[in-house]
Model the fold of this input.
Amino acid sequence: MGDILSYRDLRVWQGAMEVAVSVYRFTNSFPKSEMYGLTSQIRRSAVSIPSNIAEGHSRPSKEYARFLSIARGSLNELETQLELARRIGYLPENKFTKLAQELSIIGRQLNALLRSIRR
Done:
């Protein structure tokens, strides 16, 4: 494994960015009436995950851990919002399943990164 010189080198950040891009693409099909509701909430949660990973990366370990915890909270928030979108018929089951799997991987990576910096 290569050296981590930037948050961009972190697989967890890369995966979170892919999820954010995917979220932006599929929420384009949400009803226009949701633009300032669920669409906005889902997008903000998705963007918050890689943003907090990036923002915390250059900080001291204790602060970095706090930013990673915020990213983990945003991940849980996004999972909940995606579940709601699935239940009300805005998000097809296959898309939900794929995103849920990706978020599960990101969650495990966040937990591992948190453990590594808390040592």
Remarks:
- Residues 7-118 form a domain with the de novo design (two linked rop proteins) fold (CATH 1.20.1440.60).
- The chain is about 75% helix and 0% strand.
- The first helix runs from residue 11 to 27.
